[in-house]
């Protein structure tokens, strides 16, 4: 017999998966992002009340959408909105006959039939500041909380909250159409869209908070949308490079945790569990990006780093010198303390922990890294390799205090105990 707590856990899991599609579909209907979010939340509240009594429906996503649509009808009726809007939303509920044309369009995932892609392009309109575009899209499509987005940006939570509120108001006030633009307008927004997709992928690849290290549905959605963009912009090297990067990274998913869900470091992973199809697809996309002249662009450099790992049959075969060199180039193209942190990891493998610690100590006081748990985790690892175990223990404890992911916290506390 299913307990109420089990049902609530199921609802939370369903919500993480269905929320972006729900908001995107509702935005297409009501043409108002804030209203779409409210309607989606109303559907969730109703589910929390009803499902523990009736059980989780066979198709929970469809149940949530139908419930949200009914709430939309109530909203428009209560406010005596235009009768055409009421008729439009009502017809979509009452018509039980399958819409084969809509199903065909949706299956093609083109720039006409994909609500999620429309929502990304709407959220990435140039009327919004760059940081607001990313924050809003992560909120709507990534399903991230304001706290999680703040941690991803290494920014204050109130700052992110204000960005999101202002962005939604700006879109509403400007009457921005809910569509995938064409021609030069699409190209103008493409860079922002790619950045958002990669942040969504990263949140799936290494969850900011919660009990799971990985949120595969976010990775899958980011890759799916990336492939659509590659079809829409076949001559854009960075689109292909981002697809390459995501697919090569995602190829390791099955090997990144053990049977208990605990993290498995890259060097310790069973490479026979890496998805070779994704690797082949990723390498082909990287070749395409390079052929289009984008070899030294940011996503292509990151994809090339991932490719070095993918091509190594054994951890010992990894070309760490090349990885360190690629990070050096990437650091010149897009200077960032996080990139320097990653370069230090590669340098530690190529030249030893002492050389890497010099790089780490040069950036450890950077304000943007003050609450970045990976900085302390990497520094703890280097100190441990140098025999400075007490210092290593303190760094691992600090990293554990800062992470909000329970799997990472458990792993880091274990490293601290080993160093004691």
What are the secondary-structure elements, in order, as H or E? HHHHHHHHHHEHHHHHHHHHEH
Q: How many helical elements?
A: 20
Helix amount: over 70%
Number of strands: 2
Distance N to C terminus: 45 Å
Largest sheet: 2 strands, parallel
β-strand amount: under 5%
Low-confidence stretches: 96-112
The secondary structure category is mainly alpha
The shape, in one word, is globular
Rg over CA atoms, rounded to whole Å, is 23 Å
Mean pLDDT: 86
> Going across the major beta sheet, what is the strand order?
1-2
Domain DUF6596: 189-289
InterPro entries: DUF6596, RNA_pol_sigma-70_dom, RNA_pol_sigma70_r2, RNA_pol_sigma70_r4_t2, RNA_pol_sigma_r2, RNA_pol_sigma_r3/r4-like, WH-like_DNA-bd_sf
Pfam families: DUF6596, Sigma70_r2, Sigma70_r4_2
Domain RNA polymerase sigma-70 region: 19-80
Structural topology:
Blueprint: H1 4-30, H2 33-54, H3 60-78, H4 83-94, H5 100-108, H6 115-123, H7 130-140, H8 146-153, H9 157-174, H10 183-205, E1 209-210, H11 216-232, H12 237-250, H13 276-291, H14 298-311, H15 320-333, H16 337-351, H17 353-363, H18 373-385, H19 389-402, E2 404-405, H20 406-419
Parallel strand pairs: 1-2
Helix pairs in contact: 1-2, 1-3, 1-6, 2-3, 3-4, 7-9, 7-10, 8-9, 10-11, 10-12, 11-12, 12-13, 12-14, 13-14, 14-15, 15-16, 16-17, 17-18, 18-19, 19-20
Pfam family, one: Sigma70_r2
Domain RNA polymerase sigma-70 region: 19-80
Domain DUF6596: 189-289
């Amino acid at each position: 017999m299913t307990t109420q707590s089990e049902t609530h856990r199921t609802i939370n899991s369903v919500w993480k998966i269905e929320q972006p599609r729900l908001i995107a579909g509702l935005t297409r209907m009501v043409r108002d992002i804030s209203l779409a979010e409210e309607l989606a939340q109303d559907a969730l509240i109703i589910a929390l009340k009803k499902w523990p009594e009736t059980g989780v429906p066979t198709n929970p996503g469809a149940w949530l959408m139908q419930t949200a649509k009914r709430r939309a009808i109530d909203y428009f009726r209560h406010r005596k909105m235009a009768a055409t809007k009421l008729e439009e939303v009502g017809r979509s509920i009452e018509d039980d006959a399958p819409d084969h044309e809509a199903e065909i369009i949706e299956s093609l995932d083109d720039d006409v039939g994909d609500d999620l892609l429309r929502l990304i392009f709407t959220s990435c309109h140039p009327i919004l500041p760059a940081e607001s575009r990313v924050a809003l899209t992560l909120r709507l499509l990534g399903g991230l909380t304001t706290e999680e987005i703040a941690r991803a940006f290494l920014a204050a939570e109130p700052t992110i909250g204000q960005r999101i509120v202002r962005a939604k108001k700006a879109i509403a006030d400007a009457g921005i159409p809910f569509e995938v633009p064409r021609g030069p307008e699409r190209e103008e927004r493409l860079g922002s869209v790619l950045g958002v997709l990669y942040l969504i992928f990263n949140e799936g690849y290494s969850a900011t908070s919660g009990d799971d290290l990985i949120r595969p549905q976010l990775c899958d959605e980011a890759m799916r949308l990336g492939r659509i963009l590659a079809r829409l912009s076949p001559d854009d090297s960075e689109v292909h490079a981002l697809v390459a990067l995501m697919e090569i990274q995602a190829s390791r998913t099955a090997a990144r945790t053990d049977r208990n869900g605990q993290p498995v470091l890259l060097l310790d992973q069973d490479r026979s569990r890496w998805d070779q199809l994704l690797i082949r697809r990723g390498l082909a996309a990287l070749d395409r990006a390079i052929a289009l002249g984008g070899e030294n662009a940011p996503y292509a450099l990151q994809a090339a780093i991932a490719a070095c790992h993918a091509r190594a049959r054994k951890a010992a075969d990894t070309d760490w010198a090349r990885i360190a060199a690629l990070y050096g180039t990437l650091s010149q193209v897009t200077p960032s303390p996080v990139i320097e942190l990653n370069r230090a990891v590669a340098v530690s493998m190529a030249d030893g922990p002492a050389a890497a610690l010099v790089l780490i100590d040069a950036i450890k006081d950077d304000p943007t890294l003050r609450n970045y748990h990976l900085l302390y985790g990497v520094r703890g690892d280097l100190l441990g390799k140098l025999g400075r175990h007490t210092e290593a223990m303190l760094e691992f404890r600090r990293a554990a205090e800062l992470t909000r992911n329970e799997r990472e916290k458990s792993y880091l506390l274990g490293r601290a105990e080993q160093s004691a």
